[in-house]
Amino acid sequence: MKSTPSSKNFYQWFDPRGRSISSWGFIINRITALGLSLYFILHLIMLGQLTQGQQAYDGFIALVKNPIFAVGELLVIAAGVLHGINGVRIGLTSFGIGVRYQVMMLIFGAVISAGIIIFFGFRMFGGV
Amino acid sequence: MIEITWKITIRIPRQRQDEISAEWQDFSVEISPDETVLDAVEKIWAFQDHTLTFRHACHHSTCGACGMRVNGVEKLTCITPIREVTRNNGTLRVEPLRNFPVVSDLVVDLSRFFEDIERMHPPQVATNRQDNLLYEPVADESANLERLVDCIECGLCVSACPVALTDNEYLGPASLAALQQALAASIDTAEIDLADHHTGAWRCHSAFECSAVCPSNVEPGYRIMDLRKQLMQKNFKQWFGGKGKRA
Fold first, then answer.
1. Do residue A26 and residue B205 have CB atoms under 8 angstroms apart?
2. CA max distance for chain A
3. pTM of this prediction?
4. How many Å lie between the alpha carbon of B102 and the closest alpha carbon of chain A?
5. pLDDT in tens, B58-67
6. Residues 64-103 in A contacting B (C-alpha not used; CB under 8 Å)
7. How remote is the C-alpha of B134 from its chain's centroid?
8. ipTM of model
9. In terms of CATH, what superfamily is B111-239?
10. Are B225 and A7 an interchain contact pair (Cβ–Cβ within 8 Å)?
11. Which of A15, A123, B172, B200 could cysteine-pair with B158, CB 3.0–4.6 Å?
């Protein structure tokens, strides 16, 4: 029989078609969590360069000064902010606080996040 | 009075229990836009294909039998007007609910879903005050009036739930909401411990899709959050020396 729950269905988590605004919080949290996990792994790899000696580390640092990596850093900040603020919303609702206003909190959190991300964007690229 | 008729195409996945994949079949239907999606499905069965299988009973959103996915969104088809989900010459995708085994065409097997709800001992009837969530306003004069509990056991919430998509063991929004209602109604056989499990209230990931699609305003998502609150109160009491059998 088809259509039974299966871990193979996980890709449907990321399909927002027909879903309510609350699902955007769910989807954003999953995407940002995956992004932050990836960043964490890359960060550990970068730190691992320290064990390869000064030359290898300096070479790697020179590489990540490329502007493309700065965009990546902004994405990491965006992911951290979105995941953190939405996490506060989920934490509060899980304690039974503000459940009725969870959609409002999601929108408010998104606006605050956008403000923080734009602020960091200007700080990082405003002088370019 | 001018009677308007729309010509629409309805796409339905045809499958039997033992078939691995479904085959989409298109049906052309002439129908008033004020008729419902269930009316359209019945017209297909009556005039085009007697082998089409689907569930239906009351036709006024009381029995919960006709839950289906209409253009990817869970709907009670008996109260979903055609004009709300398509346009003249448009196409309508009608599918069985997700997260349940498909028995045939648009029919899914809800037996485990019903058993899980039954285990929670939900009240059939409750007073307004007992059945309302804390934040819902209750008029004093109606507080002690009895009413049927809202859930019509249609399964739309389970179909919409992203966690139920991937976790076969998850109790699901309807069962957890039923437990919250049972606890609110102080039913002795209701056990909050049933929700205190990784497949219970803690498995919910707060997408609130269950509340968005519920045709009966049960607000399962909000009730799961209330259960979590009760569980935390109970567990904190137990961890720090209190009795706390039930919050």
1. yes
2. 60
3. 0.87
4. 6
5. 999 999 999 9
6. 90, 93-96, 99-100, 102-103
7. 22
8. 0.84
9. Alpha-helical ferredoxin (1.10.1060.10)
10. no
11. B172
